[in-house]
TrEMBL record, chain A:
Species annotation: Mesorhabditis belari
SUPFAM superfamilies: WD40 repeat-like
Record localization: Nucleus
A GO cellular-component term linked to this record: nucleus
UniProt main location, coarse: nucleus
InterPro entries linked to this entry: Trm82, WD40/YVTN_repeat-like_dom_sf, WD40_repeat_dom_sf
Single GO BP term: tRNA modification
Alphabetically ordered keywords of this record: Nucleus, Repeat, tRNA processing, WD repeat
Protein name as it appears in the record: WD repeat-containing protein 4 homolog
PANTHER family tied to this protein: TRNA (GUANINE-N(7)-)-METHYLTRANSFERASE NON-CATALYTIC SUBUNIT WDR4, WD40 REPEAT PROTEIN 4
From TrEMBL, chain B:
SUPFAM superfamilies per record: S-adenosyl-L-methionine-dependent methyltransferases
GO molecular function: tRNA (guanine(46)-N7)-methyltransferase activity; tRNA binding
Organism in which the protein naturally occurs: Mesorhabditis belari
Enzyme class: transferase
Pathway(s) per entry: tRNA modification; N(7)-methylguanine-tRNA biosynthesis
Top-level taxonomy: Eukaryota, Metazoa, Ecdysozoa, Nematoda, Chromadorea
KW Nucleus (keyword) present: yes
Record-given protein name: tRNA (guanine-N(7)-)-methyltransferase
Family to which this protein belongs: Belongs to the class I-like SAM-binding methyltransferase superfamily. TrmB family.
Length: 388, 263
């Protein structure tokens, strides 16, 4: 997967095992040169965490394993960058004038989403097993009882926040970090207290398919995913406020970003495997959608309200569209392009994979059985009647 | 429950015939099913997108009008507890949640038969119109059926112990799952657990006791609760444990108020 993160001073592209840090300057890049960090070294040298029962984990190594990027994030103040990689390692970098790795640590399950809390003190990681865990940004933190969210003893660092039987697909926070909002493969959005996440304040339901991406704006939770519609929910009650038209007849919404435009909410969204970016203003109701076309399907995008620019990452590189319609390709080094093209997307289908139609099959068997019994009975009555 | 009970489809035709004709109580043996269904896999379970969209009259008929479900028996099995609770709480709607298709169908048929019997015998109480069973996965879909604080009692009777370490995440009581149960349970509402497996009992007590939203009832409070005696023998699993002279470990927990948020 190729990932894009943008802060005021950096554009970070993560692809294959490499992180590319490009310095931003106004509407352009400072230089075409950039810092490259290959995470392979860390991945192979970081010691494994001894698990209590998964024996094979103890002897496994990351040697020779092909690394892919899973998910990434920049802290609100733009000072920290984090990335999770396929060898189940999270790395945190500080983004001052020089780029330094602050921490690297192993996590027990494949990470699917990563974000900093608004306080900037913790890194929050959601995984494919349905758990959300809180990690220290500057040092390892542990829960008092060293139990994970399933009540199991664990040697991994981190404080468990929530767990469910699903796949976590996104995690977001309100402005002040009192609430954590999580989205999952079971069409659910959960609004929990933070960090006291054992108190669930509300569920925001109504999606007909998985929920892939979340954004918060004032008193709204905005979400998108498999049902191709933008949903807006009340932040306190989770109740649906509005649901957009389908943005496409099949392509799911892959990423959302909310932007304030003239005091109004503007929702930007990209679709899976699609080169169009859609923007819909919302003011009591959804307004007419507007579109920005890129030259290839988007892997990631970022809308900068301040500079009024839209960045889009695809196999042709990184392009910038300004709000007034002008667009150009940023000059990036060929090795960045190469990594973007080589990056593999994870082979996950978020749609439900129901192979056994248990209920239908069962009902059919039952109906057949009962019909058979009725038929036999009919026959017997007939023969009884003919005997008389 | 035995691990490898066969998926018994060979039905005893004579008995089935009798049941069809007279709407007599269905016999368990027609409905035996594999003891375990993996709660983590994708099942073809039907559930409402939101609790508002759930039409409870399909389960309770007119009896659902003006009433909301307040008791949930999680993993209700063959439904023995619900049948005992029904006449004792005639004004309360109660639901059994059962993952196995055949078993939940058995409970539904049984309730139907009991309702008909109650009508013909002139039952003046709820006549089993306050009980129903849903085939569902309680570890996934509770918030789809029930709103915040809707339930007043949740039962976990003789849940599968899942002994192996790796399968602990299958256990129905875990710190992660407790947050969801706490959400649908009203402050003051109760969780009842019962098991014959001491390890599981200790596990459930440990996790419920250390959870900030639950507190265990004192021995006196437990003794005073008229529902507690039903935890022992009303279900078929409970009766089996009695036959095998097993031990029984009940426990009851109260849902506390949410802690006051600091500013
Ligand atoms: C050992 S039986 C006990 C049944 C009943 N409570 C009794 O006491 O006789 C446990 C039951 O829980 C059901 N079950 C397990 N996980 C479940 C889940 N996630 N949702 C609903 N039912 C579940 C199983 O199918 C099984 O019928």
């Amino acid at each position: 997967m190729a990932l894009l993160n943008v802060s005021d001073s950096w554009i970070i592209i993560s692809a294959t095992s490499k992180l590319f840090f490009l310095q931003r300057k106004g509407k352009d890049l400072e230089t075409t040169s950039h810092k490259i960090i290959d995470v392979t070294e860390v991945s192979t040298s970081l010691p494994f965490v001894r698990t209590t029962y998964e024996l094979e984990e103890n002897v496994r190594t990351n040697q020779g394993e092909k690394i892919e990027m899973c998910c990434s994030a920049i802290s609100r103040d733009g000072q920290l960058f984090a990335v999770a990689i396929s060898s189940k390692i999270c790395l945190i970098y500080s983004l001052s004038s020089s780029i330094e790795m602050k921490r690297a640590f192993r996590v027990p399950k494949a990470p699917s989403v990563i974000t900093f809390d608004p306080q900037g003190e913790h890194l929050i990681v959601g995984d494919r097993a349905g758990n959300v865990t809180m990690y220290g940004v500057s040092e390892a933190i542990f829960s008092d009882d060293k139990l994970d969210i399933n009540g199991e003893k664990t040697n991994f660092e981190g404080i468990p926040l929530t767990g469910g039987i699903t796949m976590m697909l996104d995690v977001a926070f309100d402005e002040i970090g009192r609430r954590m909002i999580t989205a999952d493969r079971d069409e659910k959005i959960r609004i929990s207290r933070y960090p006291d996440s054992f108190v669930i304040e509300a569920y925001a339901l109504g999606h007909e398919e998985y929920v892939k991406t979340l954004a918060i704006y004032k008193n709204y939770v905005i979400s998108g995913g498999g049902d191709c519609r933008v949903h807006i929910h009340d932040f306190d009650t989770g109740k649906t406020v509005a649901v957009s038209e389908r943005l496409h007849d099949k392509k799911p919404i892959s990423q959302l970003q909310v932007v304030e435009n003239n005091g109004k909410l503007n929702v930007w969204s990209s679709l899976e495997d699609d080169s169009t970016l859609t923007s819909i203003a919302f003011d009591q109701i959804f307004q007419q959608a507007e579109q920005v076309k890129f030259d290839a399907p988007l892997m990631g995008f970022y809308v900068d309200e301040k500079t009024r620019q839209i960045y889009g990452l695809n196999t042709n590189g990184l392009s910038v569209h300004s709000f007034d319609g002008e667009s150009h390709q940023l000059a990036i080094d060929s090795n960045v392009l190469e990594a973007i093209r080589l990056a593999k997307n994870p082979d996950i289908n978020y749609f439900k994979n129901v192979t056994h139609q248990n209920v239908d099959e069962y009902k059919k068997r039952k109906a057949a059985k009962f019909a058979e019994v009725e038929a036999k009975k009919g026959k017997r009555q007939q023969s009884l009647a003919s005997q008389n | 429950m035995k691990e490898n009970e066969t998926n018994n489809q060979a039905m005893d035709e004579e008995k089935l015939e009798a049941a069809v004709m007279t709407k007599k109580l269905p016999q368990k043996k027609f409905y035996r099913q594999r003891a375990h269904s993996n709660p983590h896999s994708d099942h073809d379970i039907e559930y409402p997108l939101t609790p508002d969209r759930m039409d409870w009259t399909t389960l309770y008929g007119d009896y659902a009008n003006g009433r909301t479900v307040e008791f949930a028996d999680v993993g209700c099995g063959y439904g023995g507890l619900l049948m005992q609770l029904s006449p004792r709480f005639p004004e309360t709607l109660m639901i059994g949640l059962e993952l196995r298709v055949k078993v939940s169908d058995f409970v539904t048929e049984k309730i139907e038969a009991l309702r008909q019997k109650a009508t013909t015998s002139g039952d003046t109480g709820a006549g089993f119109k306050n009980v129903a069973c849903l085939r569902s996965n309680a570890m996934k879909y509770m918030p789809n059926y029930f709103g915040k604080g809707q339930l007043t009692k949740i039962f976990f009777l003789y849940p599968d112990p899942h002994f192996k370490n790796r399968k602990h995440k299958w256990r129905i009581v875990t710190p992660g799952m407790l947050a969801e149960y706490a959400y649908v349970l009203r402050p003051g509402g109760l969780i009842y657990t019962m098991t014959d497996v001491q390890d599981l009992h200790e596990w459930m007590v440990a996790h419920l006791s250390s959870h900030p939203l639950f507190e265990r009832l004192t021995k006196e409070e437990e003794d005073a609760d008229p529902v507690v005696p039903l935890l022992f023998e009303s279900t078929e699993e409970g009766q089996k444990v009695t036959r095998n002279h097993g031990s029984k470990f009940p426990a009851v927990f109260r849902r506390k108020e949410n802690p006051v948020e600091k500013n």
